[in-house]
Model the fold of this input.
Amino acid sequence: MQGAVTKKYKIMLAAGIHVRTALTIAKLVGRFKSNVFIKKGENEAGTDSSLGILALGIEEGDEIEIRIEGPDSAALADCFDKLVNDNFGE
Done:
């Protein structure tokens, strides 16, 4: 594995991660070569499918863990930070 980043975030969106937010995440990840996995509790999903993200049932106040694996993991982690800090553009 070339480059790996793990980060934790607290979701502050009143609606949690919903369809539009999941699509925004999938679109961001699609611009990079790295693979991204989101974990809530014991459940984990890849971000190659917005349905997988939605299946986690992420709600306001939930803490999630993001694991990014690949050659551009640091750059993707920076972009993910910006996305979360901007409340996913909501």
User: Anything to note?
Assistant: Helices lie at 19-30, 50-55, 73-85.
